[in-house]
Specification:
Layout: E1 2-5, E2 8-13, E3 19-25, E4 28-29, H1 39-42, E5 49-52, E6 58-59, E7 64-66, E8 69-71, E9 82-83, E10 93-96, E11 99-106, E12 109-122, E13 125-134, E14 140-142, E15 145-151, E16 155-158, E17 162-164, E18 175-176, E19 187-188, E20 194-198, H2 201-204, E21 213-217, E22 222-229, E23 234-238, E24 245-251, H3 257-263, E25 270-272, E26 277-288
Antiparallel strand pairs: 1-2, 2-3, 3-4, 5-15, 6-9, 7-8, 10-11, 11-12, 12-13, 13-26, 14-25, 15-24, 16-19, 16-21, 17-18, 17-20, 20-23, 21-22, 22-26, 23-24
Length: 289
């Protein structure tokens, strides 16, 4: 589905997780997208921009009990973890132009839930509104976020003072940014960085003078501000060696959020009462640099 018109066009694939397939700005493609759509089925983690729910990032697949129910997930990633939720590749329903939904649960996740996404383009901004709703009759842990892969060469600023690093073996507590994780000024990001910055509530809600994330494509002459609105805001960024792209992911929790919930660590999954919802909004505002 095509949303918007030149000079800002978004293409969404509802049949493949309501995934952002293209983000074309001033004639330049800014997302890492495959030539063949079927590549998403074979390698869903490294392309486009996909929704993560009912959790983001990694959690361990070891069975654990939460609120009287057992979570028993299988691994879906090479490092043996369960990563990025259950809806990133499932077919979603198209409810209206730019509005999509999917229901989930089961497969080791013992609650029913619904995820909704609305994508709109106004002037030179694309807005992605996400929510996960607990459809079950018992409290459910939840998180939500979006995982866009932005094509390089790309400069990044993430205006957070503390960081959880690395994401794979994340510590319980954040530490002050430093070295490769100090991205408070716009510039290149070092290859191999994979970390989470948080918690960026004030800047994310737009009450500060700067957006929490700024992006710049120097070869294309394009700049973007990423503003995020959610009850709690964390920014994951990763630059795998050789990928030619950087993931910049707004989320509602820190990595290993199920462990954080069970141990009382900061940045956990949010417990939703029956019928309660958790929302996250990402807005990308573009301009010529």
């Amino acid at each position: 589905m095509r949303i918007g018109a030149d000079p800002l066009v978004v293409e969404v694939l509802p049949e493949l997780g309501a995934r952002l397939h293209r983000l074309r700005v001033f004639g330049h493609d800014l997302l890492r997208a495959p030539e063949a759509i079927e590549t998403y089925r074979d390698d869903p983690m490294m392309w486009g921009g996909y929704v993560m729910a009912p959790w983001c990032n990694r959690i361990e697949p070891t069975p654990v009990e939460v609120a009287g129910r057992t979570i028993a997930l299988g691994s879906n990633f090479v490092d043996g973890t369960a990563i990025h939720g259950q809806v990133y590749l499932r077919p979603w329903q198209t409810e209206a132009p730019g509005t999509f939904s999917v229901q989930g649960g089961g497969h080791g996740w013992p609650w029913r839930y619904e995820v909704r996404e609305q994508v709109t383009v106004v002037d030179m901004a694309v807005r992605v509104e996400l929510e996960v709703v607990n459809l079950d009759d018992a409290p459910m842990p939840a998180g939500i976020g979006i995982h866009p892969w932005f094509l390089g060469p790309l400069e990044v600023a993430i205006r957070g003072d503390v960081v959880y690093a690395p994401n794979g073996d994340t510590p319980a507590l954040p530490v002050p940014v430093g070295g490769d994780t100090d991205l408070r000024r716009l510039g290149p990001m070092a290859e191999g960085v994979d970390a989470t910055w948080g918690e960026l509530v004030a800047e994310g809600r737009g009450t500060g003078s700067q957006a929490p994330v700024e992006l710049r494509w120097p070869s294309s002459g394009i700049r973007a501000e990423m503003r995020v609105d959610a009850p709690t805001i964390f920014i994951v960024a990763a630059k795998p060696p050789g990928a030619g792209a950087i993931a910049v992911e707004p989320e509602t929790h820190a990595p290993q959020a199920l462990r954080r919930l069970l141990r009382g660590e900061p940045g956990p999954l949010t417990m939703l009462a029956p019928g309660e919802r958790l929302t996250l909004v990402m807005e990308l505002a573009f301009e010529r640099d």
